[in-house]
Specification:
Blueprint lengths: L1 H16 L6 E4 L8 E9 L2 E10 L5 E2 L7 E8 L4 E9 L4 E10 L2 E8 L2 E10 L2
Amino acid sequence: MKVIAFAAGFAVMAGMAGADPAEGIWQTRKDDNGNFGHVQIKPCGPAVCGTLIKAFNGEGKEIDSPNVGKRIVWDMVPYANGLYDDGKIWSPDRDKTYNGDMTLAGDSLSVRGCVLGICRDGGTWKRVK
């Protein structure tokens, strides 16, 4: 019986340890149009991906957006020290896809995208939950 209890406890701990620190819902910074969104980050294979789940206008009122449900971040591979790299970031306000990287520090996620060596700072996203 002790072996079963230990195995069950270990399985629960292993599942918790397997959660990526970037998993969760993140609020983006305001875009060129003053809008922002909530992006849900979760695992996708050996990387993490993010989907826009809500959109808001500059006053913080939820709005309908054709971009809700679309991938914003994909194939971000976790590395040491909170770095995620080798992925892509799509910017809805410019309808451009960038080679992206992210850096996680607590409840802040710094996002950046580059095309042909020209980089755009995606700002710092704040964890919602």
